[in-house]
Amino acid sequence: MVRFAPRTMLRHLSAPLPRLRTIRANFLAINIPLMLLAMLILFGLYEYTAYTHAQHELQQKIQRILDNQSAVLKESLWTLDHERIQLILTAAGADPDIRGAAVYDNMGNRLADVGSFDPSRMSHLVASKDIVYQRHDEQRTIGRFTVALTNKRVEAAAAERLVWATILATLLLLSAVVSALLANRWVIGIPLQRLLNSIARTEKGGGRQAVQWDSNDEIGAVVKAFNRMQAHQQRYETELRRARDHLERRVAERTTELAQARDAAEAANKAKTGFLANMSHELRTPLNAIIGFAEVLENEVMGELGHRRYKDYARDVRESGQHLLALINDLLDLSKAEAGHLEVEEEEVNFAAAVRQSVAMVQPRADSNGVRLRELMPEDIPILYADQRKVKQILLNLLTNAVKFTEHEGEVQVRVWWDDDTPVVSVRDNGIGISQEDLDRIMQPFAQVDTSMNRKYEGTGLGLPLVNSLVELHGGTMTIDSEPGAGTLVEIRMPATRVLRRQSGEKAAS
């Protein structure tokens, strides 16, 4: 009998399938187990039905044997003809389905037997029937007939059916696989291969071509959609190529124009720088003479001027000349920095001393404006390798700007501190402040937040750009943080490579 376990088969089918590389392989991996399961179920049902029918026929046969042989044996058993009883059993044992038979008297003694049988083995194929003899309308049980059948013929038929079922299932499976592969190739494989070939040609730059396939099924719809996409993409690429060519021409034209404009701007900038440098040198000579003659008049070196107001006029001329000379010097330094001609005379610079000297020089102006100056120094003073005059110029510009833009009773704080190994000097004021959108503009030469400040604060807009140039000349950085009405904070960070050493405040002061 064929035995199968559908639950085990379904559990194996429900497990995740391995990831195969082709649709054909995936198709077979799914369909072959399903077809095998379907054939197992069909042949299993058929075999179960045939086997059950064969068993039923054996049960009917054993009943017929009992009825027939009991009728034949009753005369011989009544007369106790042992030889005839044995002959009857021998004739019955010739049936291939009979494994054994026996006759017993009414006392249970075995009178004759044929074959061998164990009543405990295959009890459903062993049966007995009482032998009844009728005489003068009286029925008497004179014995018992027992017969045992074998199911070898049934099992042989089942094995033969199993062989033929296996052959038939194999042929059906092969034919189903071949037909499925052919159908898969004609319905899916060929159009899919054409799609892949078209994609491969597109990837290699061979141009976009329509896939030749015409069907009304889902594959045909996919091919038509792909062909439409190819056509749209071809149009987009053509338009994009034209736009790119046009853009390249425009970029080339604009690059040429910008290069010409850049060359013209550089030439104009060089001419401006040269003009400013020459004019600064030309202006300083007569200006120094004016300052010198004004000092002679103010100090009455040649005698009294006769009227006190003349002396005031001489002081005004000297102060104006000195202001103009400072402006010319800044302008000359800025021009040199832009032209890359500004030189650095490096030496050992005591940063704390430079800060204190700068504060002392700005202190009179702070006192006249009613502004308080504060300085904060670390315990270990940085000793720098830098240009001392330019370091003082940086500090003076920052302090002068802070005092100039701080209102009466305001405060300006200059602080030196360390950020790891980097020396930092910061100048903070609580003056008018600068808005964020104006911070970038004030770093341009001759620019201020408001042109009216030229009149109110006597500014030229050279201070911060010049400071930034001098700081960058030393390899440092300058940052500005400001807010209108809340003041301004300017930080100067000198590179750590400029630090020669640190020394205590007491030693630096001495």
What is the CATH class of the domain at 6-174? Alpha Beta
Strand content: 15-25%
Under the CATH scheme, the architecture of the domain at 6-174 is 2-Layer Sandwich
Quote the average pLDDT.
Answer: 78
Derived structural class: alpha+beta
**What strand order characterises the main sheet?**
6-8-9-11-10
Low-confidence stretches: 1-17, 449-457, 506-510
Shape: rod-shaped
Helical content, roughly? Answer: 55-70%
Order of helices and strands: HHHEEEEHHHEHEEHEEHHHEEEH
Number of helices: 12
Q: Which fold name is given in CATH as the topology of the domain at 6-174? A: Beta-Lactamase
Distance between the termini: 117 Å
Over all CA atoms, what is the radius of gyration? Answer: 60 Å
Major β-sheet, in short?
5 strands, mixed
Number of DSSP E strands: 12
Any chance you could write out the topology, listing elements then pairs?
Blueprint (H helix, E strand, L loop, with lengths): L5 H9 L8 H57 L2 H12 L4 E8 L4 E6 L10 E10 L2 E12 L2 H52 L14 H81 L9 H32 L7 E4 H19 L2 E5 L3 E7 L1 H17 L6 E9 L2 E8 L6 H7 L10 H5 L5 H11 L3 E7 L3 E7 L5 E6 H5 L1
Parallel strand pairs: 6-8
Antiparallel strand pairs: 1-2, 1-4, 3-4, 5-7, 7-12, 8-9, 9-11, 10-11
Helix pairs in contact: 1-2, 2-3, 2-4, 4-5, 5-6, 6-11, 7-8, 8-11
